[in-house]
Specification:
The complex is a heterodimer of chains A (194) and B (250). Chain A is of the alpha+beta class and 194 residues long. Chain A contains four helices and twelve strands. A five-stranded antiparallel beta sheet of chain A has the order 10-1-2-11-12, with helices on one face. Chain A has a five-stranded antiparallel beta sheet with strand order 5-6-7-8-9, covered by helices on one side. A two-stranded antiparallel sheet of chain A has the order 3-4. Chain B has helices spanning 19-28, 80-101, 107-120, 168-178, 186-200, 230-239; strands spanning 34-39, 42-48, 65-69, 72-78, 132-140, 144-150, 156-158, 161-164, 211-219, 222-227. In chain B, helix 2 crosses helix 3 and helix 4 packs antiparallel against helix 5. Classes of the chains: A alpha+beta (194), B alpha+beta (250). The A-B interface holds A 71, 73, 75-76, 78-79, 82-83, 86, 110 and B 99-103, 106, 108-109, 141-142.
């Protein structure tokens, strides 16, 4: 489980994850899905220990879906992130904590604003304009610092993400397979080609 | 009536009724009135206080209107001791939601939580139901201002205007007549509330020591709760020409 990216813009969030599944020195799979759609306007990306990632993210996915079915309303991205953080915090002081890092990207249909949350396995939560998890962060956060603006359009956001992926291709010791990119906006969640 | 079936609280009678629940509602119909009115830009909850003795120490705070959380209040009719248990439960539930989601609990969900608890007492445990009805008034971003009513059976419904306790038949009648289809302003709702209260209260003279009054509205996008103090209630009575007027006995 390796690199995750998230970039917010004027009215969207674009996220990306590398689709490798690695075990020690072996590439197990390309095309691994490291995301889960929690509700029509909220997407969660996960990385960290492989089993924990799937287990925890599906647990969150089902709880958020159940909320939507029970109450007929969508939880806001902020509430979703708070819920996930609370679960991580409870897990932290249990016998074996989940080793999962998350990016939660959402579009709040009430305020019409996009939001991105960075969470880690120690139950940190930060509301950020852009974020990354994994080794990719070391190479790309500076790029995002330099080129990101609050009001970028989707096209500009995709170009910025391509810059980041390009940097990883240049400098990461391991070969980077294709990244899977997904955009969250008022119309929902969709895959985009990088 | 099959008396033998009354004693067990959680079973049906042969006619398919739950007597204990009905008896609880009967108890409430002897309690002092509380009413709620929804306005376009807010809501009002008003209640009659039981006999105020001069010897009573008033510092404790109201017995009829309570704050649930930042965006909800409620009015109570029935056994105050039962009400305290339920109010405590619902305040805790609201904070539990805030703890988990970092957002205020939507109004209807909070009402459902309490109603699920009340329903439990009609189905298992062998305990009597709670002898309290509630009128909840709140605001959330999903449905704006809302008014709900729940009773000992655990049923609830949303209302534009409703009342609980004694004299609800006449109060509901007045509310039905006076409530405007297109909605009221908060000021109109306040006036209507005090007017209905004055008609249903048994006492011959109206005073702020016999009334509890509260409003909920949005100010700069934030929910503002106002629990009226005695001077403010007096002012409202005065505005409506009801202050210390001797009413004809009903």
């Amino acid at each position: 489980m390796e690199t995750l990216f998230g970039i917010t813009g004027k009215d969207f969030v674009i996220t990306a994850y590398d689709s490798k599944a690695v075990a020690s020195i072996t590439l197990m799979k390309i095309g691994e899905n490291k995301s889960r759609e929690l509700n029509p306007h909220t997407l969660m990306l996960f990385s960290g220990e492989p089993g924990d990632g799937v287990h925890f993210s599906e647990y969150i996915e089902r709880n958020i879906k159940l909320y939507g079915i029970r109450n007929g309303i969508e939880l806001s991205p902020r509430a979703v992130a708070s819920f996930a953080r609370r679960e991580l915090a409870d897990s932290l002081r249990s016998r074996k904590p989940y080793s999962v890092n998350l990016l939660i990207a959402g579009f709040d249909v009430k305020t019409n604003k996009p939001s991105l949350y960075w969470l880690d396995h120690l139950a940190s939560l930060a509301d950020v304009p852009f974020a990354a998890h994994g080794y990719g962060a070391y190479y790309c956060l500076s790029l995002l610092d330099r080129y990101h603006r609050e009001d970028i359009t989707e096209e500009e956001g995709i170009k910025l993400l391509q810059k980041c992926v390009g940097e990883l291709r240049n400098r990461m010791i391991l070969n980077m397979p294709d990244f899977v990119a997904k955009v969250v906006n008022k119309d929902g969640i969709r895959i985009v080609q990088l | 009536m099959s008396r033998r079936y009354d004693a067990r609280t959680t079973i049906f009678s042969p006619e398919g009724r739950l007597y204990q629940v009905e008896y609880a509602m009967e108890a409430i119909s002897h309690a002092s009135t509380a009413l709620g009115i929804l306005a376009k830009d807010g809501l009002v909850i008003a209640a009659e206080k039981k006999v105020a003795s001069k010897l009573l120490d008033e510092t404790k705070g109201g017995e009829k209107i309570y704050i649930i959380n930042d965006n909800m209040i409620c009015g109570v009719a029935g056994f105050t001791s039962d009400a305290n248990i339920l109010i405590n439960y619902v305040q805790t539930a609201a904070q539990q939601y805030l703890y988990t989601y970092n957002e205020d609990m939507p109004c209807e969900q909070l009402v459902q939580k309490l109603c699920d608890l009340k329903q439990g007492y009609t189905q298992y445990g062998g305990l009597r139901p709670f002898g309290v009805s509630f009128i909840y008034g709140g605001w959330d971003e999903h449905h704006g201002f809302q008014l709900y009513h729940s009773d000992p059976s655990g049923n609830y419904a949303g209302w534009k205007a409703t009342c609980i306790g004694a004299n609800t038949a006449s109060a509901q009648g007045i509310l039905r007549q006076e409530y405007k289809e297109e909605g009221l302003t908060l000021q109109e709702a306040k006036n209507l509330a005090i007017k209905v209260l004055s008609k249903t209260m048994d006492t011959t003279s109206l005073g702020s020591d016999k009334i509890e009054f509260a409003t909920l509205e949005l100010v700069n996008g934030k929910v503002v709760r106002r629990i009226f103090g005695q001077p403010e209630i007096d002012a409202l009575l005065k505005e409506n020409n009801l202050l210390n007027k001797t009413e004809e006995a009903k």
